[in-house]
Queue: 2 jobs
Job 1
Amino acid sequence: MRKRTLVVGSAVAALVIASAIAGCENSPTNGKVEDKKQGSGTLGASASLQDLMKARNLSEADVEAALKTYMPTGKHDEYYIFASGGQSGNVNVIGVPSMRMLKVIGVFTPESWQGWGFGGDGDKVLEGGNQGNHKIRWADMHHPNLSETKGDYDGKYLFVNDKANARVAVIDLADFMTKQIVANPLAASDHGGAFVTPDTDYVIETSQYPAPLGRDYVPLSEYKEKYRGTAIFWKFDRQKGRIDVSKSWALELPPYTQDLADAGKLDSDGWAFVNSWNSEMATGGTLQGKPAIESGSSQNDMDYLHIINWKKAEELVNAGKTKTIAGMRVLMMDVSGPEGVLALVGQPKSPHGCDVTPDGKAIVVGGKLDTHATIYDFAKIKQLIAEKKYESKDPYGLGILPFKETLQGQVEIGLGPLHTVYDDKGNAFTSVFIESVVAKWSYKDFKKPVEKLKVQYNIGHILAAEGDTVSPDGKYLVAMNKMSMDRFLPVGPLYPQNFQLVDLTGEKMRLIADMPLPNAEPHYSQMIKADKVKPIKVYKPGTNPFTGELDPARVEGGKEKIVRNGTKVDVYMTAIRSHFTPDQIEVEEGDDVTIHVTSLETSEDMTHGFTIDLYNINVSLEPGKHENMSFKADMPGTFPMYCTEFCSALHLEMQGYFLVKPKRK
Ligand code: CUK
Ligand code: CUA
């Protein structure tokens, strides 16, 4: 008891010292006689600090946590978190340790501040995510993944998946903007994505709920014969910063519900692992008196971990051993099974999570209905596959490896272990959903959890500083909790989610901050050292961010004009404090209008917006940016157009008129 007081007492001492230093630096009377009095104010500060602690009912541990997370104005955080924005379809960017929200990147869902999805060039990116003729403008985002070089984050790109609509997006971290969305032509939903291979050659996207490949109608009575899972290997072209769809390919998987995936690294580079549940192939049918999928899929004691040798699969694909389905080259199971490219091994009851250790030597899988983390030994798996030592085959002819012989070990974790991340000391941290704890254990010697930290409440994913790379940092961990219950001011029946920052620098894990996530349920997130990310500050004048090049229709100052060609009207416009040129546009009802606008601003953080009232047109014009907006002038009338960003003292005056003359009847 006494010892504890001493330890935490030092935190207050540190705070006192910190405030004394700050007091001196900021003091306008520095060097004068009164200064000494102010200096003795240090003690006063300490006394008032005690008062403050009392008044706010703060413990010394609270003060220490505050010291660890407080960011003075103007100081920058040490890490970025790129968090899935869940059902919001967009990415949340958060600073660590302050847990301040820095940005919401518009990805799958229109984001009006960024002018994302309101008539500008970003619309074309969103169009890429259409499924067939269906325009989809939301997502259930689950797993963001940063680009890697040699298994380490390189800070260049971010990939995210949309579980609900089976899509993957590419975000460029040079300007934190979404550059591409690709739609999965085979699967109806995805989950094991977007995971990158160690040099970002591929972005992996595996399906979740089985469906006929290409999503044709097939009655559920033919589930076993016609329904399938799939793993797409999207080829990433780093030079272009885009996925090359034509060089991408897929694997056919059995209709077990594939869940999470991870790419091998170092020792296991060239391989990928996908866990699954529902080896029972249950399809529900509750109205017909059949069990719900919930229980139908929980009958067997074992489900299957899928082991994919993607390097070898790539060779077979290049050798033309594929079948083309919905425009995608697919390596079918009758090729991949016998070739040892796809194999299975049992996984204890309803597994979740699939996380390769930093050394690439093992794969850790949790179990929603199991109390263990199961640790597979990659070297053993590789050996068994090479020797074709299968214990049996599944109904699709895929070899099943002998479970016990693939293991490094199993660790009793607790109730409902899900996901695992790592630190730099050989520790694994597993999220335990039902028990609502973070369990720390050693993946080197498989000891029982050495420590458990209660979190509030019901943790799903877990993330740590570079905690899924070949060189984790340790230092910080975040518990991504599904429920917040009593943690924040009540806001009605839909509660925020709760990110809890955990300090890993001490001997024990220590909870140091809570952050409400008010815009959806994030699943996975990643934390990268801030100095690895090097965003630009302004665009080169006339740049179209979606091509990354100078736009052919960019406009220079003095060259503004309106060009009419039949019913086609092109407006070449510039924006600079505090006017648009031209500021009067008159067209006729039914004209096809394109407004090409270039921001002539060159200074940092000098952003304009451009909107036309009632026309659902709205773009953001960061310095140097060029946007093209095409629309039909189908609404006659008088429409003010104006700048939506408070850019100068005369911002309100940054306006003009868009007039649409009615058609003569
Ligand atoms: S899943 Cu959400 S808690 Cu989609 Cu990664 Cu495990
Ligand atoms: Cu430009 Cu306000």
Note: Confidence is low (pLDDT under 50) at residues 1-14, 16-41.
Job 2
Amino acid sequence: MEDMLLIAGPCSAESRAQVLETAKGLAGMKVDYFRAGIWKPRTQPGAFEGVGRTGLPWLTEVSATYGLKTCTEVANAQHVEDALEAGVDMLWIGARTTTNPFQVQTIADSLAGVNLPVAVKNPTHPDLALWSGAIERLARAGIRNLMAVHRGFAVHGQVKYRNAPLWQIPIDFRNAHPEIPMINDPSHISGRRDLLADVSQMAMDLAFDGLMVETHPDPDAAWTDAAQQLTPAALKEMLAGLVLRQVKEGAVLDGLASLRAEINMVDEAIIELFARRMGMSKAIGKHKVERGMTILQNKRWQELLAMNLEKGQQLGLDAAFLADVFKAVHQASISIQRSVMREGRNGE
Ligand code: PEP
Ligand code: MN
């Protein structure tokens, strides 16, 4: 883990005891920054919005007791002022804030003359220019120590990840800003513990500079993001399992690595679409059972195939290839509908 930057700590600071217990668990590990959200931007009103400034002395205590540097999310000038006063060592701008240039500018203005490290999370939607723009606003305010955090993107219909990684976007960001370290946040990409190791390994394979991982002493009881947090012990185990390559190509990935990352991403999207497609087949199977219809509706199938081949032709796809793909999809769809029908019969 020698040259990897590690940021770890709870999604939210909940209590003094929870913050200190997490820090204690992380103290023996090579953690560069202890994170804890003090002000939490929540999508739905009524959810826990963070303990607020009450939690800042807990971070000071983490530094004093365990010698860890601390960081927290800031979303306005008051947060910046409070965090600076409490001696927080690094600040990050959350994904929802990065989407708003007015807010980013306010934060940049309030940081003028204060050369604290600042990490900028990618905006919630896949917009590279907005991410770059936020970094540039901070750079113009004189912030020299900037980092980018890749936390994935909200994409409608995404089923596997909480936030789709869309790996090509951080790769494009690095190529535009090779001097800015790129940190991966597998927690907010995955949304669930069992995906964290794979996402982190992908980040290492793409020569990312570090990881930000949410860590909680009792993850299932966490007040926010319970499903994605790890205990400090589980984090240690996950990090030990990562394969780190010695030879990095530096900031700019070569063409092959970047194309392969894009292929992996597209293949994954295809698999997710297949899963959705088969979900539709199941639903249509139920309708057919209820209406006493045969599974094969040949006229509909012929029309569907012709329509899809025509769409494929417009995109320059080989007709024979596409016909094979749709015939295979149709066969799989028939099998699913047959099992729906069998279940229907058994249930009678
Ligand atoms: C967080 O880090 O807890 C957080 C709110 O993240 P994001 O801004 O990436 O959603
Ligand atoms: Mn979180």
Note: Residues 11, 188, 214, 224-225 surround manganese (II) ion (ligand 2) (CB under 6 Å).
